[in-house]
Amino acid sequence: MAKKEFKAESKRLLDLMINSIYTNKEIFLRELISNASDAIDKLYYKELQSGKAGINRDDFKITIETDKNAGTLKIIDNGIGMTLEEVENNLGTIAKSGSFDFKTGMGAAEAKEKSEEGVETEGGLGDDREKIDIIGQFGVGFYSAFMVSDRVEVVTKADGSDKAYRWVSEGVDGYEVEETEKPEAGTEITLKIKADTADENYSQYLQDGTLQRLVKNYSDYIRYPIEMMVEKRKMREGTGIPAGENGEPAVPAEFDTYEELVTLNSMVPLWKKQKSELTEEDYNNFYKDKFDYTEPLKVIHTNVEGVVSYTSLLFIPSQAPYNYYTKEFEKGLQLYSSGVLIMEKCGDLLPNHFSFVKGLVDSQDLSLNISREMLQHDRQLKAIAQRLEKKIKSELLSMQSNDRARYNEFYKNFGLQLKFGVYEGYGINKEVLKDLIMFYSSSEKQLVTLKEYVSRMKEDQDVIYYACGESAEKIDKLPQTEGLRDRGFEILYLTDDVDEFALQMLYDYDGKQFKSVQSDDIDLGQSEEEKQEAEKKAADNKDVIEAVKAALEGKVAEVKLSSRLKTHPVCLTSKGGLSIEMEKVLSQMPMEGGIEASKVLEINSGHPIVEKLAAAFAEDKEKLNKYAKLLYNQALLIEGLPIEDPVEFSNAICDLL
Ligand code: ADP
Predict the structure, then answer these.
(1) Distance between CA 645 and CA 625 in Å, rounded?
(2) Which of 41, 43, 106, 361 makes a 20 to 30 Å CA pair with 61?
(3) Same domain? 239 vs 293
(4) Which of 86, 142, 368, 372 for mutating ligand 1's site (highest number of atoms within 8 Å of CB)?
(5) Quick one: which atom of ligand 1 is closest to the CA of 140?
(6) What is the dihedral of CA 458, 462, 468, 473, to 10 degrees?
């Protein structure tokens, strides 16, 4: 029989297909099994519709057969099969897929044909991107078989027809079709697996173990049984038993091999089962089987019916992956289309701030393109992603209020990511996240939410106080926090680099702005009397303070007497938006060198040091200079900032001693 050429375009597409569309050759099996399952679906529904009696889903199956000697792999189904016309159309021309539905008027296939006829002059297929887009319109899943085979043979008989056909192709060169015999309707695809090369181990596709793994991995939840004869071993009777005195078997074991028909897939996806049927253990085992080696912290199983219907099974891990906070970490959920895995990691389903979530989404409403690796339309995907985000948020909130210990556990691992999320994209996600974040509270001695903080605010308090530092212990000891705590104010302790940036992005919570206790203009809620006294003291010591400032020329923007401090003589605060903590964070980044906070040296007005300074100012200007530098360096040390000249500092201390 004469060899037929693939259509010109098909040739190029087939070539592209074999060489570039799929990154992962092993998915050919998933494609062929999915086609087989589709073909069975079609026959099953056809029979249902025709009202045929005694139709039973159990009569349908997909069979895998290998012949290691011949080097062939067969995928057999008893589905609807193909007529000659269908064989020609579906397998002879890549740019035609029987499953593709031209819903949108003139599809690209017609457009392409017209252009070949010269009606349209615009030449297509300029670059690879365009090729993929065009491929995206059609079914070429079948052709993925050529990634692993030298030769593909399809024997098929359409339901209701008495003729069967054999289609054979060795790739881009073309194909042959001839009539043949086949007793039952259905399709049998035989792949002549390629010989192994230095880079590729093709012969694995003839091995039971590989095939079992691939089915389990990609097609576990296909609704029809996928059966295969699997080689098993059985101990030959009378050998290998019993153990002798030294523990060795008295007789060496010998085995007989035999074959057993095995159903490779479990058919009903766990996520499709009723929640009431499932135990915590079922979920945990499933999770450990597929996603992680430890049990999940939380399982979220949801079934949504709507414009886009889907089932999602999400897990919050009980620990962060080792590379979670690095660039290497890749977020994403498994994506299934009616039980068939089409994407291992679909990143678009999760926002960055919830990137820790693992699990899967299964929907029948996704429009797929040919490779099943890329989704043609992401509108449905976006809709699903939005609902997932809402769901994850509400589950986390309910954990936060009903099971705080567990939430704390979660927060320990992923709280940082939530705070990055607040900061990311100029705060576009802050509404989603503001109730999920927590900070350590000076009064509660544990993590608290902003809502909890605000609910406890004193009547005359109009800002949310926070302080930054390396650890809660260190912040506790800061001079700036002491006074406020004494007056009964709660302070949030910020210990992660991102914290203050996140709060700045948040701007306020419930109308209450955030205020650093380390900024110079903090209102301590003093009485009128206290304020007057402070003003008087400042006026009395104006010249002394000016002299201290002159001694620290270029180092601080301002020096002032302060009544905020209790026991400590000095502290550093900052003016304006950039705090000292932010300066520290930014100074660690390679790009941001040279950005400095505008610092204010505050001297405790109630501390005897003020009198000492006044005396030095009157007697000995050199001494005053030395004191000023000492106090400044002390304040730097308290803030955890490096002092400029440690030798000079230590000499100055010795002098004084
Ligand atoms: P897709 O499945 O995405 O439409 P394929 O290239 O995998 O594209 O298949 C092309 C067409 O060939 C299918 O749409 C179907 O009509 C037909 N086909 C493929 N495999 C089978 C099969 N096992 N039984 C019946 N028809 C099949």
Answers:
(1) 15
(2) 361
(3) no
(4) 142
(5) 6
(6) -10
Per-residue pLDDT, 101: 34
> Domain range for residue 9?
3-103+128-225
Query: 154 and 16 in one domain?
Result: yes
Atom of ligand 1 minimally distant from the CA of 141: 7
Task: Look at residue 126 in the predicted model and tell me its pLDDT.
Answer: 32
Residue 522 lies in a domain: no
Shared domain check, 554 and 489: no
Q: How far is the CA of 20 from the centre of ligand 1 (A)?
A: 20
Hey, whose CA ends up nearest to atom 21 of ligand 1? 35
Mind listing the pLDDT tens digit for each residue in 494-521? 999 999 999 999 999 999 999 999 888 7
What's the 116 CA to ligand 1 centre distance in angstroms? 25
Among 27, 35, 78, 102, residue to substitute to test ligand 1 (most atoms within 8 Å of Cβ): 35
- Interior angle at CA 479, CA 477 and CA 481, nearest 5: 75
566 class by beta-carbon count within 10 Å (0-12 exposed, 13-18 middle, 19+ buried): middle
- Local structure of 385: helix, strand or coil: helix
In the chain, count H helices and then E strands: 21, 22
Q: Into how many domains does the chain fold?
A: 5
Q: Using N-to-C axis directions, what is the helix angle for 379-402 and 404-427, rounded to 10°?
A: 140
Residue 167 CA to ligand 1 centre (angstroms): 13
Neighbours of 162 (CB within 10 A): 6
What pLDDT is attached to residue 367?
Answer: 62
Q: In the structure, which protein residues have their CB atom closer than 6 angstroms to any atom of ligand 1?
A: 31, 35-36, 39, 77, 79-82, 90, 97-100, 139-142, 187, 370
pTM: 0.67
Same domain for 136 and 277? no
Closest atom, ligand 1, to C-alpha of 94: 6
Give the distance (Å) from ligand 1 centre to CA of residue 190. 15
CB 449 within 8 A of CB 489: no
Q: Whose CA is nearest to atom 16 of ligand 1?
A: 98
Within a domain: 180: yes
Point out the residues of the chain with pLDDT beneath 50.
95-139, 369-373
Considering the domain architecture, whether residues 153 and 205 belong to the same structural domain is answered as yes
Contact between 240 and 254 (Cβ < 8 Å): yes
Question: Nearest to residue 463, comparing CAs of 523, 512, 509?
Answer: 512
CB 467 within 8 Å of CB 573: no
Q: How far apart are CA 122 and CA 625, in angstroms?
A: 82
pLDDT digits 0-9 by tens, 319-376 = 999 899 999 999 999 998 877 777 788 999 999 999 999 999 999 877 654 344 455 5
Q: Where are the beta strands (DSSP E) in 181-254?
A: 186-193, 226-235
